[in-house]
C-alpha cells in the first residue's frame, strides 16, 4: 500500500492527510509548490456518490432537527444547517475522509492547465 504520491510538478510527496485537507476534489493545490492539480480518473465517480449522499445528509439534518424539536421547541427556529453541523458533522467528516481515500488510492493526479 502506498503512503504517498509525488506531485506532478515538484515531485514532493503528497500524503493522505494532504488529500483530506483539500476543500474539494476540484480545488486541489500542492502544499509544497502551490500548483493547481486535477484528478481525472475518480472525479466522475465521486460526483455520482455526492449526488446520492448530499440529499441523504440534508434529509438526515431535517430528521435530526425534527427529533430534537420534540424535546427542545426552541430548536425549530434554528437553521437546519446549524443543527446538522452540531449533531451530524462526524458523518460528513467520514464522507470527506472516504473521498480523500478514494482519490489517494485510485486517483490520477495531473497538472491543471491554465486557460
List the defining traits of the structure above.
115 residues; mainly alpha; three-stranded antiparallel β-sheet; two-stranded antiparallel ribbon; 4 helices; 53% helix
Helix and strand topology:
Layout: E1 5-6, E2 13-14, H1 16-21, E3 28-29, E4 36-39, H2 43-71, H3 80-87, H4 89-106, E5 109-111
Characterize the structure shown.
This protein is mostly helical. Helices cover 53% and strands 11% of the residues. The chain contains four helices and five strands, in the order E-E-H-E-E-H-H-H-E. It has a three-stranded antiparallel β-sheet, with no helix packed on it. Strands 1-2 form a two-stranded antiparallel sheet. Strand 1 and strand 2 form a beta hairpin. Helix 2 packs across helix 3 and helix 2 packs antiparallel against helix 4. The chain is elongated, with a radius of gyration of 18 Å. 12% of the residues are buried.
Q: Would you summarize the structure shown here?
A:
The chain has 115 residues and is mainly alpha-helical. The protein has helices at 16-21, 43-71, 80-87, 89-106; strands at residues 5-6, 13-14, 28-29, 36-39, 109-111.
Amino acid at each position: 500500500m502506498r503512503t504517498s504520491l509525488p506531485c506532478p510538478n515538484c515531485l514532493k510527496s503528497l500524503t493522505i492527510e494532504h488529500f483530506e485537507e483539500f476543500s474539494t476534489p476540484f480545488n486541489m493545490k500542492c502544499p509544497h509548490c502551490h500548483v493547481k492539480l486535477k484528478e481525472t480518473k475518480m472525479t466522475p465517480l465521486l460526483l455520482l456518490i455526492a449526488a446520492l449522499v448530499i440529499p441523504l445528509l440534508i434529509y438526515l439534518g431535517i430528521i435530526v432537527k425534527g427529533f430534537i424539536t420534540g424535546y427542545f421547541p426552541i430548536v425549530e427556529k434554528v437553521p437546519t444547517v446549524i443543527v446538522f453541523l452540531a449533531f451530524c458533522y462526524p458523518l460528513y467528516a467520514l464522507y470527506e475522509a472516504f473521498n480523500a481515500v478514494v482519490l489517494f488510492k485510485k486517483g490520477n493526479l495531473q497538472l491543471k492547465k491554465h486557460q
